[in-house]
Amino acid sequence: MDKNLQNIEDLFRKGLEGNEELPSEEVWNRVDQSLEKVNNLKFRKKYYSLRWATALLAVGLAAMTIYLFRNESKKQNAAKARIENLVTSEPSSAKNPSENPPTPSGGTQETSGHKLQREKSLPTEKQKAENQIETGKSDSRQLNKAKNNLNSETAIVADKTAPPVNEKTTELQQPKGRPKFFNKNITQLDNKRGSSGLSLIDKPGSTPSESVSQFENQLLPPPSVTFDAHELLSLNRNQDLKDPSTLSPYLSPAKTMKQTPIHISARPRFYATVFYSPNIPFSHLRDEDHGYGNPFSRELEKNEKGSYSYSFGVGLEYRMNNEWSLQTGLNLSSIKMHLEPEKIFAERDNQGSVKYQINTSSGKGYTLPSFSTNPQIGDSLFTKNINHSLQYTGIPVAAKFYITNKRLSVNVLAGVSTNILSHGKISTDVNKGNETEHENIHEIHGLKPLYFSGLAGFGLSYNIFGNYSLTFSPTINFAIEPINKDVPVNSYPGTVDFRFGLKTEL
Amino acid sequence: MDINETEHLEATRQLIKSCLAEERHAQRNLYELYAPKMFGVCLRYAKNREEAEDIMQEGFVQVFKSLHNFKFSGSFEGWIRKIMVFCAIAKYRGRSKLHSVLSIESDNIIPYENEDILSRLGKKELLQMVQDLPPAYRLVFNLYVFEGLKHREIAQQLDISEGTSKSNLHDAKLILQRAVTNSMKIANQKSTNG
Question: Is A284 helix (H, G, I), strand (E, B) or coil?
Answer without folding.
Answer: strand
